[in-house]
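Narrative summary of target 7.
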Amino acid sequence: MKLWQKLLLGGLGASMPLLLSLLTVDLQTSLQHVTKIVLVGYLIKWIVLFGVGAFVVFLYSDETNKMKIFQLGITAPALLMMFVNSNSIKPEVKAEQKMEVRSAPMPAPSNVETTWEQLKRGLTGK
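Modeled conformation, tokenized:
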């Protein structure tokens, strides 16, 4: 098997954690209101994870088993996605924590996201 084939297989393995994250977390959090900038951020995240998976496979360049190469490509991106997803999910606030005493009315929050905020949402899910 040629090196570029191994790198491609490792990169495809690296895409699996991102696909699972898309199906389980991102559709409920960061991808509820999709814009082009959010998609660009998501694409950048995929390229980085693909590169990380290919790099891990490159470190094990003597491996010839296709299944092991695919699994090697999954490892580091899966850990990275676990870290990113754990930071993007907000813990539930208990009812007694929600109660606040306000003396003056608060201004309505702005729902307009800047370009950087949209890109960050695509990259990190926040």
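The chain has five helices and no strands.
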